[in-house]
Amino acid sequence: MRRSAERTFVQADCDSRGRLSQARNMWAVIHRKESGALRRAQQEREQETRGTTRHREPPVYPFRKPRSLNPGKQQGGNALLARRGCSVQEIFRTMVDPNSMPHLHIAAFPPPPMRDWALFLDLDGTLLDIASTPDSVVVPDGLVKDLAAAQKALDGALAIVSGRSLADIDRLLAPLHLPAGGEHAAIVRRPDGFYDEVEQKVPDDWKRSLNDLVESHPGLLTEAKSHNVVAHYRNAPSKKAAVRQAVSALVANDPENFELLEAKMAFEIRPRLVTKGRAVHALMNVAPFAGRVPVFVGDDRTDHDGFAAAIELGGIALDVGLAFGGRPRDVRAWLKRFANL
């Protein structure tokens, strides 16, 4: 009886060790597979850093709020970003440096166009290649036609939001007369022809002061608008410090009402009430934009307010530098896809 019991115990113990060994072997296989997957993922991330990864569609749209949230309740992007460990204000910082956004899924490519979108497009650096001066930009062949096709596919829900004046936007995109936010949405033209304009304007003596600076520093250029003023140093990059000092001194005279914005090779003074997010909110309240998913595409710091507004309303922000490799031609190629909706 005792030997039988001992044999039974030994057999059971062997079976147990066998199952344990089998489990260990299975775990080792799984571990090797997972380790291989992790290594491959790490290699892909390293390749992406070097820019050598093959093109593939992203699993998650950049800056897209999950559709499980009810857009009708306007829960906003603040709660979403708080759950991801940042705030809307921090978007402005993180948009400059993709490496500081581990909590957001940044795609290498933009999502495919959707019929329920409301599309907001920046102009210079997004649809148009940056030129040495604002007046020397070139509108590529076919862009106006593609914009018209995209507007038709979206039932009219397409707007231009630019630092340029409305007159300048219309001149470049003639014969189109699109809904638009000019001068960073200091003036918003709605689809019904109504103009929403802020009252604050940069003082004329500030503009004259910058004109004097340009005369004393060859290569600089000022771009005076009805509400804003821009000092460009693209053709005189060594003068950046002088320009910064001059515009900073002007804003210091009335910092409560005006702010200084650093753009690409330029500094802009604008009223604090003026942001591109203002255009998004104004147009999303009227047809045909209302009830759609706002998608804002831009390339510069001046576009970050538009990004934040789109996110806040349950939409998508596409940074040209991140989603299109910094190439306006890729934005234009993506725009062509709207005609097939």
Description:
- Helix content is 40%, strand content 14%.
- It is of the alpha/beta class and 341 residues long.
- It has helices spanning 2-50, 76-83, 88-94, 143-153, 166-172, 204-216, 240-251, 276-283, 304-312, 320-323, 328-336, and strands at 117-121, 158-161, 180-182, 187-189, 195-197, 221-224, 229-232, 258-263, 266-271, 293-298, 316-319.
- It is built from eleven helices and eleven strands.
- α3 (88-94) crosses α9 (304-312) and α8 packs parallel to α9 (304-312).
- Residues 1-39 and 48-107 have low confidence and may be disordered.
- It folds into three domains: 1-54; 71-198 and 274-340, HAD superfamily/HAD-like (Rossmann fold, 3-Layer(aba) Sandwich); 204-271, Alpha-Beta Plaits.
- It starts with a helix and ends in a 5-residue tail after the last helix.
- The protein has a seven-stranded mixed β-sheet with strand order 5-4-3-2-1-10-11, sandwiched between helices. A four-stranded antiparallel β-sheet has the order 6-7-9-8, covered by helices on one side.
- The longest helix has 49 residues, at 2-50.
Name the descriptors:
single chain; 341 residues; alpha/beta; Rossmann fold; Alpha-Beta Plaits; 3 domains; 7-stranded mixed β-sheet; 4-stranded antiparallel β-sheet; 11 helices; 11 strands; disordered N terminus
Q: What is the CATH homology-level superfamily of the largest domain? A: HAD superfamily/HAD-like
Distance between the amino and carboxyl termini = 82 Å
The assembly state of the depicted protein chains is single chain
Strand order of the largest sheet: 5-4-3-2-1-10-11
Number of helices: 11
Supply the number of structural domains. Answer: 3
Low-confidence stretches: 1-39, 48-107
